[in-house]
Amino acid sequence: MVAAAGAPMASIIPDPTEIVHLPPPEVHAETVEGPGVSHGDVVLDIRDLRTYFYTYDGVVRALDGVSFKLRRQETLGLAGETGCGKSVTAFSVLRLIPDPPGRIVSGKILFRGADLLWGLEREAKVKPIKKTGRVKVSRRFRRIKAAAARMMAVRGHGISMIFQEPSQAMNPVFPVYDQIGETLALHRGQHIIDQLLNATPDSPELLPAIERLTEAVRSHASNERLEELAAAVGNATNLPSFGTQAFYAARTALTSSPDALTIELRSALRRLRLSGLQRSYLKYRRRQTEFIDQLRETYMREMQEGQSHRLLEARSRRRSFANRWSHPQFAVPFVHRRAEKPLKDELFWQTVALLEGVQIANPVRVARCYPFELSGGMIQRVMIAMALSSEPTVLIADEPTTALDVTIQAQILDLMRDLKHRIGTSTLLITHDLAVLAEVADRICIMYAGNIVENAPVMNLFSNPLHPYTRGLLASIPRVDQPDKRLESIPGSVPNLITPPSGCRFHPRCPYAMPVCKETRPPMTDEGNGHQVACFLYHGPAVVE
Amino acid sequence: MVDEPKETKLRVRRRPNPRLDQLRRTWYFFRRNTLAMIGLGILIFFVILYVVSFFYAAPATQLETYQATNGSLPTPTAIFTQVCTYQQGESPPGPNCYLTPVGMPSVIGPTATLRTASLGPLPFGSLTLNPPGQIFYNTFDGLVKGTQWSLTISVGVVVSGAFIGILLGIVSGYYGGVVDEVIMRLTDIFLSVPGLLLVIITLAVFAPSVTNLWTRVGLVIAAFVVVWWPSYARIVRSQVLVVREQRYVEAAKASGAQGGRILRKHILPNSIYPVFVQMSLDVGTVPLLIAAIVFIGFQVFTTRSFPEWGTITAFSAQPDVLASFITNCQSASALGLGCTFPWWQFFFPGLTLFLFAISVSFFADGLRDALDPRLRR
Amino acid sequence: MRLWIYVVRRILLIVPVIIGVMTITFVLVNALPVSQRLVSYYGPSPRLSYDPVIPCSKLTGNPSTLGNCTNPAYTRGVAALGLDKPIPVQWAIYIGNSLTGHWGYVGNGTGVTQSVPITRGQPVVTVLGWFLPYTLELAGLSLLLILIIAIPIGNLSAVNRNRPVDQAARVLSFSGYAMPAFLLGSVLLMAFVLLLGGSSGLSPFCHGQSSYTDLTGSWPPPQCFPGQLYPTWLQSGAISSPTGFPTVDAAYHGLWFMALDTLIRILIPAFVIAYGTVALLLRFVRNSMLEVLNLDFVRTARAKGLPEKTVVKKHAGRNSLNVTITVLGLTFAGFIGGFPIIEQVFQLNGVGRMIAYSVTLTPYDFGMIFGSTILFTLLVVSANIIVDVLYAFLDPRVRLG
């Protein structure tokens, strides 16, 4: 148990029975109670996920049986070296794997009671060709397309994702407000349109509220006071985004002329006074969003119940879909532009409010910018705003700070932590940097070559790393409190995923390797305190899938 | 239970030649493209035909035989010519006669002749008849013999153009500076003039003074090359600009390699792949262009009835000929005579041009997809 | 940089190109024997010879005079055309003239004037001005057809890579490339002529005329419109007035039916041209769309939950348009060269047909040849500039970056 029979006692990696004492981590008052305690229900359950890539050089087994659970309001970190399959896991959840050449071969991803991978077996058939040793994959493209369409139910809505290179992640030819507005319209369109339709630009409390705001500007009141009064203006019109607009108008009026503020706001009210054409356009857009919501619901139900007959129902409903051709007057360019102006303005100011929420200093300017005019950190904030705008249950962050420098990294992480508490999203944070996870995560999964090797609450992982790979990783990190510590490296290199090692994939590099490690893959065992590890060195009860 | 991948047997394979592997990989992707394989098949057929065409000599035309035995030629009526074709040795005139309107072009070839194709060392017969300049020969014979000329000219144009283009492109891309600017301006100039026009004008200026057939062919090739080389130079130059910045070039320079050696061993082999695709595509374009030039009215070769695909096709599709066909047919129906439209005169030559060009384009497209690193699976 | 600075810079870059092209034509001109140039300008004369030396007997009229004398007609002609000056001076004069628009005169008695008598002795610029609008109309309609065909099919091909739609589109585009344009044009023309005319070959629209005249030529023949209905300027042999564009002219004069007729006459030729050019464009649209579909922001758009149709049309579409416009500019250049063929088949009054006549009907008309070469070069170059400006306009990075 302590040392493998016949294997030498390695001096590189410390004795597994020795407990490494780490300095106590910073305790955040708002973090949930204690490590290792599950906070309730599981929101995302990934079981035995296998994703292979079929290439000319062979079958790349990128994910070979990945399983973990993400709980409500938990931040789960997925850590590992480059090429171990972390990003592939994230893409597999949202089914963003490009289907030739990749394929999710098997597995279950349970979200809100639905199996997101339902229907997987029927999408393609893999047959080995004996002569050449290759495999032939026959894909049924219609089914694959249908599966991707079904994902519309969760993408952005229940599960959001932010990506690694923020400067490449946004479309360069559309400005920021257009791209965020698109997301808002897609996920909260109904709510926004209802608000707009019910706005009261002629409410009696409005003018006095504007007067009070103007007074405050004249007397150079503080930002908080201005915010308060602007919010009051918004309440008077029943439209919070008008409050945002009032606030920024007031801010600019501080430096220019305060007297013009009233006139400016009165003319800004024009966007709330909807003409008949605009009203009918909004109703038409509302029908569209209703339809999309219904479609999402249908897809979700399909995946929950595992039946496809509802698709036919949706198809018949699609025939009554309000589209361009049922309202041709909206297709004419000039008419279209006039009709959608109120909606576009509304989306603009809601975008500004959203950007405020991610602590961007000058949201009105940023909203009007093109992505290439913004720095990486700024774009990443915008992406976070976009991802969280629909209040998703799960946020997947794929190496969000890798492309940014350290100071910005800290800001983004603070932001994410803050938002997590405010909105309560569960986060799957993917990174290779354990230090980041130490700060932000509640639980960490360590991945190696397409397998999860250790899954533990963050405190337990750092204080008591069980898997030899984790120990190797931690031993290679420089420590402030041990300035003379040797930086150990793990011998060997990452295995080729086309021909991975048999049994435990780490065994060629593991100093504790035993004969059984070469033959069988170690099951995930529960070592108590919520700490799971996949290694033959430990004999806890197997984790039941 | 988790499935266990078996321990992979390490097959020790000697890999001395990465180029060979790349070739094998390219062939693998090419093979899986159905259209490209069809194109390749048709191209192989044309290559065989090319070899055959050098030895092919058509049987003497039947009309000549008619003249030899009877001492006179069929007299044309006012609007029609009676054209009779028959097997060699058959006594004329056989049942294979048809009326074709006067002015209809100079190749004949009803189905009978297609059945009597024979390969072998026979003299190639051609003949001048009334009206002057109109030469009768067999469509089939003309096409087979034409393979020789069309393919030689195409390949000559493409290879010479590519040679000059690659040379100038590499020099321009690698050395940069003034040389690059000058060559780029030159390509700009040549690419701004519509190619067809430049070829026609060059030929119009120089061709009347050249009467020897082989010199004329050389002139035609040269005229095309003048128009063609800039696109190759451009392609190669853009590739060289990319290759030049690669690490292995820097490494070669660091280990002391001189300019010429770098060019030869590193830059050249890596820059010319896109050119292969363009070359194969252009081989198909050249016969089409020759056809276009002849159609416009400019006689490219020494005689009007030169057996070359483009010439044959163009002469059979002249607009005035077609117009006169219609008017003559109207008059014929007034007279109560039938009117045969010799569709084979432009159908088979057109089909040959079409098949050649389309097989070449399938092949080039398949090659492009197989060579493109991003599109590989 | 600002947009207009960019435009000015682009325009300035083409000056050396234009001078280069003119130099090439100049070189080609000077490769010709001078006598041919004289023939082209003055027209073939039964009495005079343009050779530099003639037997003296011809001069004196006395058959017994021996020897060769210099031909005064030759000397006069050379002096009149300025061909006795040294070559560099001639080049400078030629460039100067070309840049200022003095492109010479259409010769007397050349092939062009024999087939289109109205051009005799006119300045080349004027003649080209008469015929250019017809070519531009044809080019415009072809461009429209190409855009309508190539972009949707290209996008469809990219989205369904290597599936049956893609393969079919590939075959379609290659057949367009492989088919000789004149053959397709002739076959279509014949087919429609026979379709319209039936066995008698008479036109259903125009009493007494062959159905051939229904589809060829830029204008219907005058016999179709007896009396005042036929425009007077056409009756006197002019090409078109006042704007030069046939459809616009007919509409301007209120002859709506004739305007429609001119449009229909260029429909089949435009289709033939489009069919041939779509090949190149289709591959390019497909490949650029494939490239764009692999970019990061497309993945972000999908992850946002946008329906696939929106992702392709809105996000990917705008980004791939840049490359497509570049190729469009290049093909515009390409098919200007192809027009001679189509215009010849359909007998349209375009610049292409005039060029064809000037290089095929002897004696060659060198004024026309070189004038039209410069014209085509200018068209190609300006098409490229427009493309570059459009590119800068569409991509905000070029504008603001």
Distance between the termini of chain B: 31 Å
Our count of helices of chain C gives 19
Number of helices of chain B: 14
Strand order of the largest sheet of chain C: 1-2
Largest interface, C-beta within 8 A? B-C, 53 and 62 residues
What share of residues of chain B is helical? 55-70%
Overall average pLDDT of chain C? 79
Structural class of chain B comes to: mainly alpha
Mean pLDDT of chain B: 71
The helix/strand order of chain C is HHEHEHHHHHHHHHHHHHHHH
Spatial strand arrangement across the major sheet of chain B: 1-2
Structural class of the secondary elements of chain C? mainly alpha
The radius of gyration computed from the alpha-carbon positions of chain B, rounded to a whole number of angstroms, is: 27 Å
Give the helices and strands, then pairings.
The complex is a heterotrimer of chains A (545), B (377) and C (401).
Chain A: E1 42-55, E2 58-71, E3 75-79, H1 86-93, E4 102-111, E5 114-115, E6 124-128, E7 135-139, H2 141-150, E8 159-162, H3 166-169, H4 176-197, H5 206-218, H6 223-237, H7 240-255, H8 259-268, H9 276-305, H10 309-319, H11 333-357, H12 363-368, H13 376-388, E9 394-398, H14 406-423, E10 426-431, H15 434-440, E11 443-448, E12 451-457, H16 458-463, H17 468-475, H18 515-519, E13 525-526, E14 532-533
Parallel strand pairs in A: 3-10, 3-11, 8-9, 9-10
Antiparallel strand pairs in A: 1-2, 1-4, 4-5, 6-7, 11-12, 12-14, 13-14
Helix pairs in contact in A: 4-9, 4-11, 4-13, 5-6, 5-7, 5-8, 6-7, 7-8, 7-11, 9-10, 9-11, 13-14
Chain B: H1 18-31, H2 34-55, H3 62-70, E1 80-84, E2 97-101, E3 107-108, H4 111-115, E4 128-129, E5 134-135, E6 137-138, H5 139-175, H6 177-192, H7 195-206, H8 213-244, H9 247-254, H10 259-271, H11 273-296, H12 309-316, H13 319-335, H14 344-371
Parallel strand pairs in B: 3-6
Antiparallel strand pairs in B: 1-2, 4-5
Helix pairs in contact in B: 1-14, 2-5, 2-14, 5-6, 5-8, 5-11, 6-8, 7-8, 8-10, 8-11, 9-10, 11-12, 11-14, 12-14
Chain C: H1 3-30, H2 34-42, E1 53-55, H3 56-60, E2 68-70, H4 72-81, H5 87-100, H6 111-115, H7 124-159, H8 164-178, H9 181-197, H10 212-215, H11 232-235, H12 246-252, H13 256-265, H14 267-293, H15 296-303, H16 308-346, H17 351-360, H18 366-394, H19 396-400
Antiparallel strand pairs in C: 1-2
